[in-house]
Amino acid sequence: MERLIMIAVTFFAGMGAGLGTGFAGLSAAAIISPMLITFLHMDPYMAVGIALSSDVLASAVSAYTYHKNKNIDLKNGLIMLTSVLVFTVVGSFVASLVPSATMGGFSVFMTFLLGVKFMIRPVMTTKEAMNEVSPGKRAAQSLFFGIMIGFICGFIGAGGGMMMLLVLTSILHYELKTAVGTSVLIMSFTALTGAASHFAIGGMPDLPVWILCILFTLIWARIAAVFANKAEPKTLNRATGVVLVVLGAVIMGFQWLT
Fold first, then answer.
1. Mean pLDDT value of segment 211-240
2. What is the pTM of this model?
3. What is the distance between the alpha carbons of residues 257 and 15, in angstroms, rounded to a whole number?
């Protein structure tokens, strides 16, 4: 019975995380961690490590799918990636010097609101409109917002994927597929860094749970990414909105349970 519960929990956790990754570039940690903690009573630190490692392959495969369909801003994505990684470390260091406070609940609520926004006001920016922004301005924007996102993620420990999607679509006015593709590219590296540090500090995780989470997240992320790259912009906005609303509601439910 325990084995069946473990398989069911990892399947639904992987499905939610994979859909969130493939459609919206969200971190798998947002859905996998609370499920492992709530239903398998796993140590929170190890649950986050498993979630981050599940994110690595899922984000990498999603990024490959988006890149194959020419839906990644590789140059500016790498600029943002570098600044996010550096300032995540800075944010973590600053957080260690001040009284602990968490904004995890806020980031989950923002995920829910972002989903509603995609359904009510879809992102209809075209690649042609994106290309009207000068390369220098786009690079400077990528650097600035990468620093901001990295510092906030390091300081509060949550919300990176959601904030990247919000910034790329609402502030930098990226076309939705390019925004998600660029986001999953960045998340694959940030997740790898986070997972490596968690396992280095906390030791190796429960192997069956670890393997199943990685497998299920990878499968669903691939399905979502393939669908997203073939979908019309309006359909993709609605699908992304539904995924974000459902994930936001589910995670808030798990937080209430715990």
1. 93
2. 0.84
3. 20
